[in-house]
Design a protein that fits this description.
single chain, mainly alpha
């Protein structure tokens, strides 16, 4: 998912997108 956090898998898309 795209966001502040760099996650290789869409494990926490809500947190990534919200931040």
């Amino acid at each position: 998912s795209q966001g502040v956090m760099t996650d290789s898998t869409p494990y926490r898309p809500l947190i990534c997108l919200s931040l």
